[in-house]
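The freezer alarm interrupted the setup, so I double-checked each line after restarting. Inputs confirmed:
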Amino acid sequence: MNYEILLPNSSFKECAEYIKKNFKEIYYVPAGYKIFDNYLVGIPPIPIAVDNSDIIMPYVKPCHGCFVLRIPGKEEVMGLRAGKS
Amino acid sequence: MKALLMMGCPELPVQTAAALYIANKLDREGFEVIIAGNKAAISLLLNSDPEKHYIKKVMDLDRCIGALAEKKMDFDLCFVFIHSDSGISYLATIKSISKAKTIAVIFGKEIEPLIEESTDSVIIAAKAVHNPTPLQAKIDGVKSWAALTR
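Predicted 3D structure, all chains:
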């Protein structure tokens, strides 16, 4: 997957705040929300931002904490805007 | 009765010992136990129990989250192993996607903030990194895990 790390090795709350502070188009999804064939882990409601055709989302790994990733995803952007859950 | 043990990063040695200990207790109470973790956490368990006396079923962590989110499986009890912020995220996720009663198994050096974040779960917590004895004592404080399912 083509992605850019915007915020590395942080807490989930720091990542959620980063997304809410730095982006305008925010959608809130439940834990377990499926996006990019991945089920989101985190404290719901989980903020996901849309920036042009990119998704900005938190990504939790057991050994490395939480990251904020920017991932190109036109279909996922359309899904979020259409209210897919 | 079914129980899930959701492992965190295996960097703290007590996690593997605690998981084997809890799995054994659950097995003796008649639980079907599945342990989910990343590759390293599962490898540590399977290497510690090569004859599978305590570990009956294992599962990749991401696949476990997916199966719970898709409602393809669920449990009566879910033990979430927590020694960092990531564990809190996994606990919140389990509480959101599963009907299981959650048990937060908290260990490490700085356990107080993790306990504060786990208030809606049964908490088994001890300052433990290398020596599992303090955590084992807390686990032994629960006389029946099956009672939590009633």
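Quick read of the result. The first strand of chain B starts at residue 2 and ends at 6.
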